Each structure stands twice: as structure tokens, then as C-alpha cells.
Amino acid sequence: MARIPVSKSAIAKIGQAFGEAANNPEKREAFRADPAAYLRACGVSEESLEGLNVVLHEDDDSTLHLVLPAKVDETRLAVQDQDYLKMLGTMAVLGCCRPVR
Q1: CA separation for the pair 68, 82 (Å, rounded)
Q2: With 0-12 CB in 10 A as exposed, 13-18 as middle and 19+ as buried, what is 21?
Q3: Do 10 and 42 meet the contact criterion of CB atoms below 8 Å apart?
Q4: Which of 4, 53, 60, 75 has the most beta carbons within 10 angstroms of its beta carbon?
Q5: What was the pLDDT predicted at 9?
Q6: Closest to 26 measured CA to CA, from 38, 39, 14
Q7: Virtual torsion, Cα 93, 19, 54, 49, nearest 10 deg
Q8: 71-91 residue pLDDT tens
């Protein structure tokens, strides 16, 4: 389901870069100015970003952005594959920095 292929070893580095951008105004501005360059600096390859318009959306205390996938597996959706539905639900709330109840 990932829109950009990344190595598992890059995930922690990406997480650190996102965390730093959330807390550091200079890094946040760098991310705002050029999200693709910021991701490349995290270890995301140029090939993974090729042809993509990378857009950064920022949550605040009163705004929460959800990302609707471009497409999902219609067959798994139609048969109500519970593992697949749980994965979609998890992806929907992963970016939410509020507790899931």
C-alpha cells in the first residue's frame, strides 16, 4: 500500500526527520519549502519520488488531515477481508497523533 518504496532500514530515519520537523521550526520550514528534498535527505531514493507531487499537510490543535488512498484492492474490499480492512483502518489513523480508543 505504500506509495513510495523505502527500505525498512530507512523507516527510523524518516521517523526521526518527521519528529524533528514537528518540533524544530527551521526543519519544519525546510520540509515545507521542499518536501521531496526533505524525504530524499531521509534516505528516500530519487527513483521512489520520481513523477510524484509531494505535498506536506500539517496538523494543529484543531485540524486533522486524513489521507484517502488513490486506490485500494477492490476484491479484498468486496469480500470484506478483515485483515485487509484492519490494515486500511490502521493506515487511516497512523498519522493521527491522538489516542485511538
Answers
A1: 19
A2: buried
A3: yes
A4: 4
A5: 79
A6: 38
A7: -100
A8: 899 999 999 999 999 988 888
Retrieve residue 23's grid coordinates. Answer: 518540533
* Across 6-10, average pLDDT: 79
3-class DSSP state for residue 5?
coil
Residue 65 has a CB neighbour count (10 Å cut-off) of 11
Cell numbers for 61:
490543535
Q: What is the mean pLDDT of the chain?
A: 86
Which pairs count as long-range contacts for 86-93, CB under 8 Å and 24+ apart, including other chains?
87/1, 88/1, 91/1, 91/67, 92/66, 92/67
Residue boundaries of the structural domains of the chain:
1-56, 57-101
Q: What is the mean pLDDT of residues 17-35?
A: 94
CA separation (Å) from 43 to 33, 51, 59, 91, 94?
Answer: 18, 17, 24, 21, 21
pTM for the model stands at: 0.73
